[in-house]
Amino acid sequence: MQDKRRRIPLGIALIPVVFLIIALFFSIVTFKQPPHIALICAAAVAALVAVAARHPWKEIQEGMVYGITLAMAAILILMVVGTMIGTWIQGGIVPSMIYYGLKFLSPGIFLAATLIICSVVSLGTGSSWSTAGTVGVALIGVGQGLGIPVPMVAGAIISGAYFGDKMSPLSDTTNLAPAVAGTDLFSHIRHMVYTTGPGYIISVIAYILLGLRFSGGTLETGNVEMILSTLKSHFFIHPILLLPPLLVIVMVIKKIPPLPALFGGTILGGIFAMATQSKSLGEVIQAANTGFISETKVKFVDDLLNRGGLQSMMATVALIICALSFGGIMERTGMLETLARSLLKRVKRTGSLVTTTIFSSIGMNAIASDQYMAIVIPGRMYKHAFDSHGLHPKNLSRCLEDSGTLTSPLIPWNSCGAFMHATLGVNPLLYLPYAFLNLMNPVVSIFYGYTGITMERVDKKDNKSEKDQNSEAQKADLEAKE
């Protein structure tokens, strides 16, 4: 029986996207509400469009489930990070990190130091989420203690965390992008140095210049002393409490999967809470579930430490599910493919191809709400276009990372943006202007596309087409049989 479904035309495929934009605007800007309901309504509109295009409900529902399934590992990690933050604060681990950070970091160098610290950790672990959930949480507290606006601190954390997420061979996205584009891992990493290097240097300079605003006597030492004395009087503070984050980082570097490594961090937090802070097992379980409740009577410190817990992550889990339901429908019913194909029609030169790829990945981060889909779908759609322009596949893989990986934490309803919001306590729209590396890389990549700098082409003498290689393989098989 002939399939009655038809390809959804561009004008129709745009209906859910336009509705999503309008719904998000009214929800976030006008009514000051989170985007959950707007995303559910947009998913309903996408489903109605798909039904009108004769896609069966079963397929639509499978698309929603598939979209959610893509993020299940991320959701589990998010939940475990919530429990870990709760036990780490209760166990004196986060207070100790804040204490020593305030002791040894000055406001003038803090933002640049935050970038470098998070870069080193994320490069070693390959995980932006692990970096934000460990040293990132502590650095937020240190920044607040030094009187630096939290969005600036969060921007520096995001820049450093996603430097490693992009450049580390241990990162899943660093392995995914070259696999989709058709190149090898280390060629991909070497090629990314050309865009990441300038972006990183600019970011360091920008954070140093921002830091100058807080140096030269602007530090309120009274506030810092108050925080230090409060932490010291309510927690056992000792360098040994820095051991759990170091062990978690080592576990991830040793390629222990993030989920058991982070859960190990939760267990260590609970052990230290009982051993060093005289907490009972029941209190540890409560902190892991509902978060730590600070009762120092110092409002600033209490606001800083009232965090964590499994339950604190549930709103973020719901946001991810709502967003990926919409993205799953759009992907399964071919509407995302329609949008991507329409963009390719306007591509004439290398610069426009790179720009289209960059903005497609950014768009996928917003529409599909998932970092992996922002790499896989544009990578799959534009691979032939890069081949036809004579461009090496590593140019495509670099574009996918410059945009798909780095812009994912800048969108509040993307799974990455939602995670960072829940973990750092800062809305992505607030830290976006200060996430300099994430903003600079797409710009540098587009510049290279139009100027041709580092846009390596395929050597036709040394690289035969896949079709020719297949023909020669078939010919060799026939000769072997004869």
Provide an overview of this structure.
This protein is mainly alpha-helical and 482 residues long. It has a domain at 73-285 and 296-313. It is built from 24 helices and no strands. The chain has helices at residues 10-30, 36-52, 57-70, 72-90, 93-104, 107-125, 128-145, 150-167, 172-181, 185-212, 221-234, 243-253, 258-276, 281-290, 299-305, 314-332, 335-344, 350-367, 371-388, 393-405, 415-424, 428-431, 436-451, 466-481. Helix 6 (107-125) packs antiparallel against helix 10 (185-212), helix 8 (150-167) runs antiparallel to helix 10 and helix 10 packs parallel to helix 20. It is globular. The two termini are 42 Å apart.
In short:
Helices cover 75% and strands 0% of the residues.
Give the topology.
Blueprint: H1 10-30, H2 36-52, H3 57-70, H4 72-90, H5 93-104, H6 107-125, H7 128-145, H8 150-167, H9 172-181, H10 185-212, H11 221-234, H12 243-253, H13 258-276, H14 281-290, H15 299-305, H16 314-332, H17 335-344, H18 350-367, H19 371-388, H20 393-405, H21 415-424, H22 428-431, H23 436-451, H24 466-481
Helix pairs in contact: 1-2, 2-16, 3-16, 4-7, 4-13, 4-14, 5-7, 5-11, 6-7, 6-8, 6-10, 7-8, 7-21, 8-10, 9-19, 9-20, 10-20, 10-23, 12-13, 13-14, 16-21, 17-18, 17-19, 18-19, 18-20, 18-23, 19-20, 20-23
